[in-house]
Amino acid sequence: MLNRRKFNKYFPALLGTPLLLSCDDKPTVQSTSEPLIISTWANTNANTIAQQHLLKNDSALLDAIEKGVNSVEEDPNDTSVGYGGMPDNSGEVTLDACIMDKNGNAGSVTYLKNIINAVSVARKVMDNSPHVILSGEGANRFAREQGFEETDLLTDVSRTAYEKWKKKAIYKPEINIERHDTIGMIVKNKSGDLSGACSTSGLQFKTPGRVGDSPIIGSGLYVDNEVGAATATGLGEVILKSCSTFLVVELMRQGHSPDSACKEALLRIKKKYDINDLQVGLIAINKNGEYGGYAIQPGFVYAVSDAETTQVIDSKSIL
Ligand code: ASP
Question: Is the pTM of this model over 0.70?
Answer without folding.
Answer: yes
